[in-house]
Amino acid sequence: EVQLVESGGGLVQTGGSLRLSCAASGFTFDDFAVGWYRQAPGKEREGVSCISNSDGSTYYVDSVKGRFTISSDNAKNTIYLQMNSLKPEDTGLYYCGAAVYRNDGDYGLEDLVRDGMDYWGKGTLITVSS
Fold first, then answer.
1. Is 17 exposed, middle or buried, given 0-12, 13-18 or 19+ CB atoms closer than 10 A?
2. pLDDT (0 to 100) of residue 109
């Protein structure tokens, strides 16, 4: 059974930092890409970042480039999202998703993030106060 469990959310002031973790189990980690999504109250879900565990390639939505860093610890089957310089607009429920993925050059991580994942965690809430 595939499981994705997020942790690390909380309340932080503008300009602060948080690190989210997504612990994965039940699948061959190297065959998957894992992405972070967020959903703010009253807004649609947004793909924030994604990493391919097979080759380490990454994707970031423009609004977080330079502030967020995604990384993978394949030995621990865990994906991290380091979030710095947080803004109130970063507030939302953050959850990770996973899907089988190999970078063949025709279908990139941005495409995968747009199309959505096959497996989802339940999320962790982040509130950035102004």
1. exposed
2. 95
Which is more confidently placed, 106 or 14? Answer: 14
Assess contact for 56 and 34: CB atoms under 8 A: no
The region, left, alpha or beta by phi > 0 then psi within -120 to 50, assigned to residue 72 is: beta
Coil, strand, or helix at residue 57?
A: coil
Task: Please answer whether residues 60 and 49 qualify as being in contact, where contact means their C-beta atoms are separated by less than 8 angstroms.
Answer: yes
Cα(85)–Cα(89) distance, integer angstroms: 11
Q: Count CB-CB contacts under 10 A for residue 105.
A: 5
Q: Are strands 18-25 and 78-83 parallel, antiparallel or unpaired?
A: antiparallel
Tell me the pLDDT tens digit for each residue of 31-42: 999 999 999 989
pLDDT of residue 105: 82
pLDDT at 89 over 90: yes
**The tokens 């621990």 sit on which residue?**
76
pLDDT at site 101 = 94
List C-alpha distances in Å: 24 to 43, 69, 127: 27, 18, 24
Residue 58: both structure tokens together: 């990454």
